[in-house]
Write a structure and sequence with these properties.
The protein is mainly alpha-helical. It has one domain. Helix content is 66%, strand content 0%. The longest helix has 30 residues, at 156-185. The model is unreliable at 5-37 (pLDDT under 50).
C-alpha cells in the first residue's frame, strides 16, 4: 500500500470554505437578579408606610402606653390588646407583600432550618439563665416584662386573646420594626453591622424595666439579629424564631399556672 507524500491542498476560496468548530456563544448582555439581602433604597411610598407604622410604634416605645386615652374601666390587658390589634393590622396592610413571600426561604432544607431554630432557642435559654444567675445569684426573680405577661395571661378571656398576640402578633410587629425596617431598610444608608447593633440594643432595651433585664434579653436580641442577617435579611425566618420563643414561653407559663392550681 502506497501513500501519496504530497500534502493535501486546502482551498480557502469562498467556494470551498473551511469549516471550524463554532466558537462558544458570546454573552453581550448579562442580567443578574438582585439578591434578597442586597440593600435597596426605600421609595417615597416605602417611607410613607414606614412612617405611618414606625412613628407611632417608636412613640409607644419611648413614652409608654397612653392609658389616659382609653376608658378608665378598661384593664391594662384590654389596652394592650387594642394597641397590638391596631399595630398588627397596619403591619399586615403595609408589609404583607414583603412578609409572606419571604417564607419561600423554607423551600430548601426546611427540616434543617427549623431544627436550627430549636437548637438556637435552647442555646438562648441556657445563656439567659446563666446571665440571670450571674446577676442575681442562685434564685433570680422573674423579669418584670415576663411578670406582666403572666398577669395578662391570667386575665380570663382577655388572657386567651392576649396569648395569641404574644405568640403570633407581637413577634410580627417587632420583627417588622426592629429587623425589617431598622436593618433591612436602613442598611441601604449605613453598614449592616451598625444598624444591626443599634437594632439589637434597642430591642433588648425595649424589654427592660431595670438594668439587669437588658443583659437578660440581650442574648435573645443578638440571636434574632443574627438569624435575620445570616438568612439574607429574611423577616419570615426571624419571625419564626421569635414566635417559637414566645409560644414555648407562654406554654410554660400556662403549665406552671396549672401545676400551682393543682398543688
Amino acid at each position: 500500500m502506497t501513500t501519496d507524500p504530497r500534502p493535501t491542498e486546502i482551498s480557502l476560496s469562498p467556494q470551498t470554505p473551511t469549516e471550524f468548530p463554532s466558537p462558544l456563544p458570546i454573552v453581550t448582555t448579562t442580567t443578574y437578579a438582585t439578591p434578597a439581602s442586597s440593600p435597596t433604597r426605600p421609595t417615597r411610598t416605602d417611607w410613607g408606610r414606614i412612617a405611618i407604622f414606625g412613628i407611632p410604634y417608636a412613640a409607644f416605645f419611648l413614652v409608654g402606653v397612653p392609658t389616659w386615652i382609653f376608658p378608665a374601666s378598661w384593664s391594662l390587658t384590654a389596652i394592650n390588646l387594642a394597641i397590638d390589634t391596631v399595630l398588627l393590622i397596619v403591619v399586615l396592610a403595609f408589609f404583607a407583600r414583603e412578609f409572606f413571600p419571604a417564607f419561600s426561604y423554607l423551600r430548601t432544607h426546611p427540616f434543617l432550618k427549623i431544627l436550627l431554630l430549636f437548637g438556637l432557642w435552647i442555646l438562648v435559654v441556657i445563656v439567659q439563665a446563666a446571665t440571670r444567675i450571674a446577676l442575681y445569684g442562685g434564685n433570680p426573680p422573674v423579669a418584670e416584662n415576663q411578670q406582666q405577661v403572666i398577669n395578662a395571661l391570667n386575665d380570663g378571656t382577655l388572657g386567651l386573646a392576649f396569648s395569641f398576640f404574644v405568640t403570633v402578633g407581637v413577634p410580627l410587629v417587632e420583627e417588622m420594626f426592629y429587623r425589617h425596617i431598622l436593618i433591612g431598610k436602613l442598611s441601604a444608608y449605613a453598614p449592616t453591622w451598625l444598624v444591626a447593633s443599634i437594632s439589637a440594643t434597642l430591642f433588648a432595651y425595649m424589654h427592660s424595666h431595670q438594668w439587669q433585664d437588658f443583659f437578660s434579653y440581650l442574648p435573645l436580641s443578638i440571636v434574632l439579629t443574627l438569624i435575620y442577617v445570616k438568612s439574607g435579611k429574611n423577616v419570615a425566618y426571624s419571625w419564626l424564631f421569635h414566635a417559637l420563643n414566645n409560644t414555648i414561653m407562654v406554654a410554660l407559663m400556662f403549665t406552671m399556672q396549672g401545676a400551682l392550681q393543682n398543688a
